[in-house]
Amino acid sequence: MRTVPGPSDHVVVVGAGLSGLACALHLLGAGRRVTVLERDAGPGGRAGRVDLGGFQVDTGPTVLTMPHLADEAFAAVGDSLRRRVELMPLHPAYRACFADGSSLDVHSDGEAMEAEVRRFAGPVAAAGYRALRQWLERLYRAQMRRFIDTNFDSPVQLLHPDLARLAALGGFGRLDGRIGRFLPDDRLRRVFSFQALYAGVAPGRALAAYAVIAYMDTVAGVWFPKGGMHALPRAMAD
After folding, report:
1. Do 113 and 163 have their domain in common?
2. Domain containing residue 233: CATH number
3. What is the pTM of this model?
């Protein structure tokens, strides 16, 4: 994203999805006048809602990860996410079911997840999970503020000590292979690598840096907004 020179007192945001609404709130908090353009009848974008037979159905995401990012947008205008939307933490976050009939409950709590992996695949796999979790935490710290939550005006700005840290962590290898170093069980590898598909990349082709997405739901936690995911963009628009 390139810094725009010149006056920016009035900013037009195209799209009232989650990113557009978050952008608008941050701009309002910075003292800008903001106009949000949206082609649909209401806000939400991919996090929309339809009414079907008397039921309200989310059209996109169904759960929320990294709620602090939404909270930062609300905080920019003196508000808070938890005042606007009731969040329910999910324990387990979800259940992974496999073709052989086995299943695994995915917990964000480390001890609960280690116990579940031990039940599912034995003590060696549980030890591997413990090491994987530590690696995911280090990977997240190396990436989040410097590379994910940052704007760049030039590729030169990528040259930072955290880039070397990311390389040392194996972030530029292949995701599937890196997860396999910790978890030889193919089912467990899939549980901690399928998240690359969220970004449209197969785990076998994705860089190991994409494991930061697995951190977001298997370590940082998963929440359900009361009223469905559409409650979040609706609250941001209000």
Report:
1. yes
2. 3.50.50.60
3. 0.88
User: Per-residue pLDDT tens for 35-90?
Assistant: 999 999 999 999 999 999 999 999 999 999 999 999 999 999 999 999 999 999 99
Rounded to the nearest 10°, the torsion over CA 105, 108, 110, 115 is -10
Give dist(CA 84, CA 23) in Å, integer: 18
- Residue written as tokens 């009232």? 16
Give pairs for 207-210: CB < 8 Å, separation 24+: 207/171, 207/172, 207/173, 207/174, 207/175, 208/139, 208/169, 208/170, 208/171, 208/172, 208/173, 208/174, 208/175, 208/177, 208/178, 208/179, 209/139, 209/143, 209/166, 209/171, 209/172, 210/175
Q: In whole angstroms, give the CA distance from residue 162 to residue 169.
A: 10
| Domain carrying residue 32 | 10-89+224-237
Assigned domain for 169 exists? yes
